[in-house]
């Protein structure tokens, strides 16, 4: 997470949760790891995290999401947060059609606004690199597992 280093301040990490059954455990784990690295973590519903971000008076922080936001929502986030990151817990080796899922969940209009795109598994990684050309040019892909 070194690329998130911000000038002499504790980094704010925003972790919205849309569906507790799928997202709560991974986000709690990420929050735990981030706190151990001295991040300030905000975790809650998507609505509550968006209210926190909208009310910020300073610029900075990392907003993690799973995809599915439109361009206007991402622009609002990018006005307040220095990094917009996609971590989609639902796309991975268990997804029968990851390409279709990616195309459905990540609108091409936000592709150039994404700072990092985390994927699970080699197959998913290779598919994402073919779909998201602008991300490939920015070297923004990170594969989280070898399978």
Annotate the secondary structure layout.
Elements: E1 12-17, H1 20-36, E2 40-45, H2 46-54, E3 62-65, H3 71-80, E4 83-87, H4 98-105, E5 116-119, H5 122-131, H6 133-138, E6 141-143
Parallel strand pairs: 1-2, 1-3, 3-4, 4-5, 5-6
Helix pairs in contact: 4-5
Describe the model.
It is a single chain. The chain has 147 residues and is an alpha/beta fold. The chain has a single domain (10-143), classed as Rossmann fold, CATH 3.40.50. 41% of the residues lie in helices and 19% in strands. The protein has helices at 20-36, 46-54, 71-80, 98-105, 122-131, 133-138; strands at 12-17, 40-45, 62-65, 83-87, 116-119, 141-143. It has a six-stranded parallel beta sheet, with helices on both faces. Helix 1 links the parallel strand 1 (12-17) and strand 2 (40-45).
